[in-house]
Amino acid sequence: MKERNPDPSKLSIGYFFPQGQTDLIWSDEAARRTPPITRKVLIDMAQAAEAVGFDSLFLADTWSGHQRVSEQFGHMSPKHHAPLLAMGLFGVTEHIGIISTFHTTFHQPAHVARMGATLHSFSEGRWAWNVVTGYSEPEVGLFGASSMVEHDERYAMADEFTSVVKRLWEETEPVDIDGKYYRVTGRLKEPRPGTAGRPLIVNAGASPAGLNYAAKHADLLVLAGNTDQIFLDAKSELDRLGKEHGRTDKVGISPWAVSIIRDNEGEAEEEYERLASTVNEAAAIELAADILGNIDSVKKMFDKMGKDEAIRLLGAATVNIHLMGTPDQVAEKIIALKGSSEMDSLLISFPLWSPQELARFTPVLQRLQDAGIWTPPEKRNYSW
Length: 384
Ligand SMILES: Cc1cc2nc3c(=O)[nH]c(=O)nc-3n(C[C@H](O)[C@H](O)[C@H](O)COP(=O)(O)O)c2cc1C
What we know:
This protein is an alpha/beta fold. The chain folds into 2 domains: 12-279 and 319-379, TIM Barrel; 281-315, no CATH class. The chain contains 16 helices and 11 strands. The strands form 2 sheets. An 8-stranded parallel barrel has the order 1-2-3-4-7-8-9-11, surrounded by 6 helices. Strand 3, helix 5 (109-122) and strand 4 form a beta-alpha-beta unit. Helix 5 packs across helix 7 (151-170) and helix 11 crosses helix 13. The longest helix has 20 residues, at 151-170. The protein is globular and about 60 Å long. The two termini are 13 Å apart. The model has no long low-confidence stretch (mean pLDDT 96). The structure holds flavin mononucleotide.
């Protein structure tokens, strides 16, 4: 069984696995230049990430196919259902951790408890659950509901949901829970994770309700953002709220970065500019509308800011940490960020993903190891 990283001075490095031709930069050129998402390509990517030494893979997930332009051009599409993809990838990897997303709002805790217990047992402790409540209005109809549950109430549901899942994992005797949202009695069939080494819980809540959820339940918080202050503020808020929830351990922080690595100075930045200038405007409006609100409000924002600026902001990952440069430059940025942001983990997207692009990260990891902030797989027994 995998353990948890015992040394906070060591970073774990997650790879944002392709769940679409593009994920963070909705560039038509990136969608064209990345390999088609087939079984073989997905297996090759997982095995390449493991061979390079990444600690974990992060599998995002959403349910609804209402975003027609994005689907047509491959922006955040196609997406395999994350826990099922995780199971397939566990069969072809040996040590890499896999964080898979699963939504709470329209499901039952026993589904996740059973699914997670199986993934945890089969992978020998390599599975983590990225808890999301879901935010997309069109998603609700798939589950027979007429409207999305209000934001903070979704987190209240997720709080109760997660408490039930943890109890089903941990308790050896039948539970009898009569909560506000969930009524659960009985005992989960083996395998159960038990109290020692339950699956890692990850969350990306950035709102006050989201942070409060993370402070109570999560082990790791993934955050978009491009300044140290965002990460430091989240960390101190998590510490404060964690104490209120009676926690003695700390919630780790994982900034979400985007990276292009090239051998010669300036080449990675040029590549990024090419991608930023080929962001698909219609897809950016669709995807941003999902994240920020309705399409009309996002179109207004596009008008107000100016189209080019809005596309850059929303479609070119300007709100994420940028790791563009030579291997030395990227390693220096990560080492500096580790010091200034006190991050515990780092999640990286490679917009021009392929096994060869991942291999470009090998010399970066070597430098991080030399700097004493990262441990290679053969010398660790943890994924996070
Ligand atoms: C790195 C990262 C990955 C995310 N992955 C997903 C995902 O796969 N599915 C999803 O529905 N939401 C995903 N989200 C969105 C979060 O669940 C959440 O809605 C968002 O961070 C806003 O948090 P808030 O509602 O607390 O403000 C992700 C967010 C981040 C930063």
